[in-house]
Each structure stands twice: as C-alpha cells, then as structure tokens.
Amino acid sequence: xxxxxxxxxxxxxxFDPDRKVVENAxxxxxxxxxxxxxMLLLIAMANGETAFKDVMYRKIYExxxxxxxxxxxxxxxxxQIRKKLRVLEPGNADEYIVTVWGRGYRLSQxxxxxxxxxxxxxxEGELPLQKRFQAAMQDLHAARRASLSRA
Length: 151
Prior knowledge:
The chain is of the alpha+beta class. The protein is built from 4 helices and 7 strands; from the N terminus they run ββββαβααββα. The model is unreliable at 112-127 (pLDDT under 50).
C-alpha cells in the first residue's frame, strides 16, 4: 500500500508502516523489524497520547502463547527503535519517543530534553487506542492479502 494516509510524521521523521521504514527529511531510511513496526504503529496511532505497554504486549505477542517473551521486551524494542532513530538524526532523536513512566510511550513533535519531563503522567484511557490499532492492523492485513491475490 502506498496510501499517504498510512504514513505518520513525528518531529523530523516520517514513519511508513507498510514499508517498515522511518525516513528523515533528507530521505535517509532505517528499516524496522515487524515487531518494531507494530510497536511504533501503536504509538503513532495514539496521536500524542500514551500507548500503554500492556496493550502493546497483548496486541503484538498474545498470539505466541507459551512462546511469548517477557513483557520487558516492549522496553527492549523501544530502545532498539530509539537507536535506529539516532542513526537518522544524531543527538536528541530518540527523545521523540517519550517514556510515560510506569505506563507506556507516546510520540512528541519536539524533543523532550529534560529527563524528568520525559516521564509524563497517564491522562487518557486505552480503549480508543485498541480500536484504532485493530482497525489499522486489519487494513494492513487486507492490503497484504490483496497484493498476494494479484500476484
């Protein structure tokens, strides 16, 4: 799918979940794994609100059953995404994914420089995010099925 509506912009980055890439203004890209893409998609779909860790874990790993990793994997994957963002924009690039202490993550249009300010309090519920993620994942799966049926 190359629909512009499926791209998300935060700070100097454009995230294309269909291609599993994050791009900077110069056109440089970093590739994301499927799990990294799913996590960044959940955070992007929250529209600046908090994407809760427990929701991300359930949505991404619940189908693995007893093979699912520990919930700490969410923090590990976010760290990996931040490292990839630093490749594109050295300096404070990783601060565009803000840690909401004890809850989850959110995207910021501006880097949050003060480490204390990076820990934002929970202010919203998780239900709207769950519905948006489910709809987006259904759209992605439908697009994949359609492209496979054309092949």
